[in-house]
Amino acid sequence: MADISYDVVVVGAGPAGSIAARHAAMAGARTLVIEEHAASGSPVQCTGLVSSKTLDVCGIEPGAWVYQKIKGAHIFSPDGSSISIGGEKVRAFVIDRRIFDRLLLQRAAEAGADVMMKTKAVGLGPGLRPEQGLESGHGSERARGKKVLEVITNGKRFDISAGVVIGADGVQGSIARWSAIGQVQKVLSGVQIETAYDVENTDHVEVFLGSDVPGFFAWAVPVSENTARIGLCVDPARTHLSAYEHLRRFLHTNPRMMERSGKGCSDMLVGCIPLGPQSRTAADGVIITGDAAGQVKPTSGGGVYMGALCAKIAGEVAAKAALSGDTSAGALMEYDRRWREVVGKELAVGMRIHNVFGRLDDGDFNELMRFFGEPEVLELINTYGDIDHPSILLGKLVTKAKAGRMLGVGRIALRAMMG
User: Which one-letter DSSP state was computed for residue 91?
Assistant: First the structure.
């Protein structure tokens, strides 16, 4: 295949990539999305639980691909006690990520972006400087001064020249590494199965805290009255066991799992969650967004909402730079500044909470749960709780803990706030 040229090339057709491509195309840039797999959304590497705000940001109305509407959560402490939070408001949806991802890619195509599936990026280099002219043997489509993305599709290698390459290729992607941007601060290891489960409330998720899940938590997300997605994530720095080994142990030792979960599973996925953005997310001719940039909520591991907000900015800035002819790192740092203004505080606060919670022992968790179970505290959680923006609730809880008699909880909450 002959060399081809675009203003913006997006690597990765997940939610962040599709949203970035859509907004780049809407801004008038000739845009291409490449995806190494045969279909967007496959293989699935997500719990499939997204906040209601996520659909709003993505501009998608709920459809048949929404399995459950989630209004709250049952949270279990290590000693087996629990609290229930939430109310009548729908706060999240359990979805089919395959369909969701493909809808977003369809939106990008409808906006004018081209799509190439089964196309893998294998190299990235600088284009020709204007004084070099066009190399012998390359067609005029190889634009001067652009980035050159080498790809393989159907066993053939060819070059795609681009004013800006947007790396939306996930935590294990290559664009950030090839551009010397570096990797995210931390990567959690996770595993999830879909299995038979005696679901207590189809409008509530279940969350399990404690040393059995070092560095994060376990969950049961209802798909139907008798099926759930059960999984967990762990911090590899805090355990010598794999996430899969922790899940097997959790299923066979947790009393609730032993009583309610079935044997075997109909689906299993293994993946990782990137936490903590790099110090910069742009370089000459390159922007990274979504999981590749660590734009993931450290408190819940959800990345679609944050990724969508940032990807919209990525598409707009990439198009503007490519069309203006200035794709330098200085010009593209507009993206870095803008996304940090939108979600930088929440990510920073979330990382502080995550790092502190990762150091708590079972006694600390039990104490926190007793604090959270107080009627006044539950009211604060139900009023101010927002999985996309935890900083407001955290401030309220710190104030409550400092004013009350539970000095131990105040200490824990202050550690979370101060880092």
Answer: -
Three-state SS sequence of 99-158: HHHHHHHHHHHHCCCEEECCEEEEEEEECECHHHCCCCCCCCCCCECCEEEEEEECCEEE
Helix (H, G, I), strand (E, B) or coil at 83: strand
* Contact between 417 and 394 (Cβ < 8 Å): yes
pLDDT band at 411 (very low <50, low <70, confident <90, very high): low
Q: What is the DSSP letter of 342?
A: I
**Nearest residue to 396 via CA among 384, 406, 387:** 384
Query: Quick one: 114 exposed, middle or buried, by C-beta within 10 A (0-12, 13-18, 19+)?
Result: middle
Span 44-102, pLDDT tens digits: 778 899 999 999 999 899 999 999 999 999 999 999 999 999 888 999 999 999 999 99
Domains of the chain (ranges, CATH numbers):
4-43+99-184+276-343 (3.50.50.60), 62-94+186-274 (3.30.9.10), 358-418 (no CATH)
Determine the pLDDT at residue 46.
Answer: 81
Q: Are 285 and 331 in contact (CB under 8 A)?
A: no
Using CA atoms, how far residue 165 sits from 10, 113, 138, 327, in Å, is 6, 14, 20, 10
pLDDT tens-digit map of 216-272:
999 999 999 999 999 999 999 999 999 999 999 999 999 999 999 998 888 899 999
Check residue 66 and give left, alpha or beta (phi > 0: left; psi -120 to 50: alpha). Answer: beta
Under DSSP, the state recorded for 343 is I
Strand partners, 220: 206, 230
**Average pLDDT rounded to a whole number, residues 393-412:** 60
